[in-house]
Amino acid sequence: MNEVSNAEYWKRRWNDGETGWDLGGPCPVFRELLDSPRAPPKGRVALPGCGAGHDLRLFLEHGYEARGFDFAFAPQGLPVDLLDVFELGTRFPRHFDLIVEYTCYCAIDPARREEYIASLRSALAPGGHLLALLFPVGGEGDGEGPPYAVREEEITTVLGKGMELLWVETPKSSVEPRLGRERLAFLRKS
């Protein structure tokens, strides 16, 4: 098993301060989207692999019924469950109106990406949405990973299974090191 599939690997990274994925605050791409007329409809929201909960807090502040999931770290004072993201679909079948994906997809073993997306799809209510900010798109990623590189076609070949792609774009408000290397996709469960 790839070590990134082990909760102990991620606990060690948190304990050692090896958290390069943590922006130290909410993602500016999500902030811009939630402040715009294109904001996803309010409802029950899951944020798998939520880490310190910056984006979770942002969705809560914008009136969403949001809940985070992580299997290595649960920040104090936020609605976060310690849970393996691969169990989300079996623990919360057809439950969420929106699932927000950011940096979990690129952190898991690429061989398990389809399994991960299938779990998210199972957790979505009929007609529910997946908001995925994918990174790093194109190139090779940062070494051997994580983060593992994301191929642009995965938006349709992996995320798009059983989903309708409503739109995809390259955000202009990404943090500087990720600018041009992220894709924001919005999909609806078929």
Structural overview:
With 190 residues, the protein is an alpha/beta fold. It has a single domain (3-189), classed as Rossmann fold. The protein has helices at residues 7-15, 28-34, 54-61, 88-91, 113-123, 154-157, and strands at 44-48, 65-70, 80-82, 96-102, 124-134, 163-169, 183-189. A seven-stranded mixed β-sheet has the order 3-2-1-4-5-7-6.
Briefly, what is this?
The protein has helices spanning 7-15, 28-34, 54-61, 88-91, 113-123, 154-157, and strands at 44-48, 65-70, 80-82, 96-102, 124-134, 163-169, 183-189. The chain has 190 residues and is an alpha/beta fold.
Order of helices and strands: HHEHEEHEHEHEE
Q: List low-confidence stretches.
A: none
Count the DSSP helices.
6
Strand numbers in spatial order across the main sheet: 3-2-1-4-5-7-6
Structural classification: alpha/beta
Topology, element by element:
Blueprint: H1 7-15, H2 28-34, E1 44-48, H3 54-61, E2 65-70, E3 80-82, H4 88-91, E4 96-102, H5 113-123, E5 124-134, H6 154-157, E6 163-169, E7 183-189
